[in-house]
Design goal:
By secondary structure, this protein is an alpha+beta fold. Helix content is about 25%, strand content about 30%. The strands form three sheets. A six-stranded mixed sheet has the order 1-5-6-4-3-2. Strands 7-9-10 form a three-stranded antiparallel sheet. A two-stranded antiparallel ribbon has the order 8-11.
Length: about 190
Amino acid sequence: SDAVARGPASPVSPGTPSPSAETVGEEEVRARYALGAVLGRGSYGVVFGGCDRRHTAAPEVAVKMLRRSNDRRDRKMQAEGRILKQMQHRNVVRLFDVMQTEGELYIVTELMACDLCAYVESHRVPEPFVCDWSRQLLRGVEYLHAHKVIHRDLKPQNLLLSADLSTPRVGTAIAPVHAPPPSTRPPPRPL
């Protein structure tokens, strides 16, 4: 899965949100982020571990490198990035940066220990953990919904765990909810 991550989560935001993906050269990406080992591969690209070179604390990050293939998908990914940069909740993965080169789109998020799927495949999870993680993940989803955002792909591979297993986070794959204008909404049903 391209949602695989490792390492401790970082509360430090390396980047300042920008209105859209910044167009840079590949050398600029590598100047900002030291890319480490491949953490996962997905249908659209590769996820690397790395760190932000611009900060002395050098928080660990996950750098998702996606091949740019068509304008529609690229615009959708950039829109998701703009939205996710604004989301700040302990149970929603932090997005730090969105950059594009001529051939790739880079999405930089906080680095998490692992995804829920990988964890439950190798560990028996006690019921109290399941209940606590479920509550926290639902808080993250509730936060997204309160901000008119839905998660398009809730599955164990997109639910990420902190290194100490105390804080699960909802990963990327979000979309804005566009409500119809008030004049076109159906009237409420009587109780």
